[in-house]
């Protein structure tokens, strides 16, 4: 299967509707993902074209207007807007956590945080980032962590990463390994699960760079499977600038409890 993906990669892009990959469905948690798990090294190759000219041309073929919208994709303007929306939701929970635990400052790990543009900013939040390219430089009040560095944090956030990984549940478990007992886990993903009726009628979503199609039930089930005490799992709409209109997302927030898990 992996070699077949490599061959497809040479001919076309993930954004192309001509790519067909066998998908599996969980009817209980409304989760749609490749039937064969894609390994990390294959995914790195899978996404190596991301935002290059070939990618932009292919995406423009099925997303009218992307040529113009794509100019702000990943820009500082978009990052600032996303951070503002993120802070409006998360900061009240972080303030409550800090006060409830009698802390002057809290530590936050952004798992898959790229260049670090979407972490909540406050003088009482110390931010670290994991899984970033080696040529990035941390901003003030930030540091970069390696995946093997098991420093423990008060809060671990994972924004728009789960839809890209080969094994979402294992990624969630990795998040937990970086979070202290009683700490907070926050996961955010786009809502792209098309619905059981649509799937039954053969209306499957295009396999672009989001290989996993998730829903509110997906994130709730994933957190429950990891014995996370759920604070809330809800839908919301976010403005990404490079997308036409608001994007529906799942916000999943929970508290880490290892009482029912093996060490």
How would you summarize this macromolecular structure in one to three sentences?
Helix content is 31%, strand content 24%.
Care to describe what's here?
The chain is globular. It has a domain at 74-256: Rossmann fold (3-Layer(aba) Sandwich), CATH 3.40.50.150. The protein is built from 8 helices and 9 strands. The longest helix is centred in the middle third of the chain and has 25 residues, at 76-100. By secondary structure, it is α/β, with parallel strands linked by helices. Residues 1-18 and 132-138 have low confidence and may be disordered. The two termini are 34 Å apart. The chain is 31% helix and 24% strand. Helix 6 (168-177) links the parallel strand 6 (153-159) and strand 7 (179-190). The chain has helices at residues 2-11, 40-46, 53-62, 66-69, 76-100, 168-177, 196-200, 216-225, and strands at 23-26, 31-34, 106-111, 125-130, 142-145, 153-159, 179-190, 228-238, 247-256. It has a 7-stranded mixed sheet.
- Assembly state: single chain
Q: Percent range for helical residues?
A: 25-40%
Q: Return the CATH class of one domain.
A: Alpha Beta
Radius of gyration: 19 Å
Mean pLDDT: 81
User: First CA to last CA: what distance?
Assistant: 34 Å
Overall SS class: alpha/beta
**Largest sheet: number of strands, sense, barrel closure:** 7 strands, mixed
In what range is the share of β-strand residues?
15-25%
Question: Which fold name is given in CATH as the topology of one domain?
Answer: Rossmann fold
Number of strands: 9
| Low-confidence runs | 1-18, 132-138
